[in-house]
User: Fold Glycoside hydrolase family 130 protein from Pseudonocardia humida.
Amino acid sequence: MTPDARAGGALVTRLPTTLTADPGRVLARMFVPGHDVVANTQSRATGVLARVLALSEDDVRRTLRAVLVRYTDRHRDLDGVLAGHYARIAHRVPDGHGLSEQRRTLIGAWFTHEYSIEAAALFNPSAVPHPDQSGLGPGRLRFVLSLRAVGEGHLSSVEFRTGVLGPDAAGGLELTVDDPGPFVETGRPGPTGHDRDLFAALLAEAGADEESASFLLAGLPARFDEDELDRAIGALVLQRATRHGGVRTGELARRLVRCSYEVGFAPGSTIAERVLWPHGPSESAGMEDARFVRVDTDDGPAYRATYTAFDGTDIAPQAIDTTDFRRFRISQLAGPAARNKGMAFFPRTVGGRHLALSRWDRENNSLASSADGRWWGDSRTLHVPSRPWELTQTGNCGSPVETDAGWVVLTHGVGPMREYSMGALLLDLDDPSRVIGGLREPLIGPAEDERDGYVPNVVYSCGALRHGDHLLVPYGASDASVRFAAVDLPLLLDRLVADGPPAATRENSSA
Assistant:
C-alpha cells in the first residue's frame, strides 16, 4: 500500500488492486436480423429462416458442430439458450414440428448473438458485507462489490464481484478480489406484486387523467397483480365514451407495472456470474450506478440499492431489494425527492423514518424521509457547492456510514475542467439534517495515472464499506477501471470535526 500524498499522508492509502473491463464476459442474447420489410411483406427473419431450412442435413450437422465447438465453453448452458431462442421464433417456422432437434438448435444459433457487457467500460462500484461470512479468519470480512458495466450502444447493466478484506502486516487493509469465473447470465425475470398507494402516486407523476385514474384505482385491491390490473383497465376502457383519458391512463398503467418485476438466478450460479440486465421499460437504455447498502429489517439483514433507470429520454431513481443476491426485486420510487440521479438509502431508520440522500435538484446534497421507503417527500438541503473543487455541482458517493461520532457521507464535487473529486461530510447521528463537518479539501482526487479513460479526470464511488477503523472506498477511475482506497476512519473524523461544516451549509441551516 502507498499513502496518497495528495490526501494528506496516512489519511488515504491507495491499494494495489485494479479491476478493468473484460470484453470476454459475454451474454448469449436473442438476435433478430431486422424487422424491415424487404419484399412480399416478408421480414429478414423470414428470409434467414428460409435459407437455414434449405440446408441439407449434412450441412446442419457440420455447421452446428462448429458452433458448439466454438461457443460452448463461453456459456454455461448453450444448448438450452439456443433451444429457448428457437422457441421464441418457432411460430415463424413452417412445419417446425417435423424438424430434427439439430436443425431447431441451429436455427436458434442464427437468432443468437454474443453481447459483451463490459466492452466499453467498468466503473462506479459500491461495496457491502457478503451474506456468507463463514470460514474466514480473525479480522477478515467477505464483501460483495456491485459494478456498472457498459457494453455496445452505451447500454449499462449491474454486475457483481466478491472478495475478502483483512488486516495487513502494517495494520492497514489487504484486499483480494475473487476470479469471477467464465460465465455471466441475466436470470429469469417475472412479475411481482404492486402497492396501490404507491401506484397511485406513480400514475399522478406520469400525468394520468385524474378521473380515469381514480376509477382505475377503485377497482384494485391494496396489493394487486397484473391480472387484476388488466381487469380494472378492461372496466375502464368500456367507459371510454365518457372517460376520454381512459385509454391513455390504461397504457400508462401497463407501462408502470412492467417497470417493477422480480428476477431470480439458478442456485448453481455464483454472485459474480449474475448480471442485472434492463428488463423494464423505464430502464430500457440502461441501469446505472447502483448504490447498495446493507439494512436491518425485522426479518434480519437485507440489501437495498438505488440505481438510475434510463429509457433513452428520461431518468429516474429505482430500487433493488435482495436478501441473498440470487433473487432480486426491482421497483419504482415516487415523491418529489425521488427524482434525478444519486439517491442513497441510510442503512437504518432514524426516529422511525426511512432516510435517504437525494440530489433531486441536480446540484445539491439533500436529505429526504419516507414512512415506507417507497414514497419520498420534500427534502432538506444539506450541502451546497462552496469549495473551488465542487462549484459545478455536488452529490453523494453512496450511502452514509454510521459511526459513534455521526454519519459519514462521502461526496463528489465537480470543479474546473469537469474534474470529479471525492470529499466527505459528517452528519449528526440523531438528527442527520445537521451537518457537523465537511472536508475543505478533496479526500480523493484523480491521480496522474487515473486521469485518462472513457470519461477523463473522474474519481467516483457508489458506496464505501466500513471495516473496523477503516473505510474501504472502491471507486471508478475515469470510467476506465475500478480502484480501491483505504481511509483511516479516526483520522477522517478528526479532520471533519476540525474543518467544521462548510460556510454555505451553516448559512443555509440558519436561514
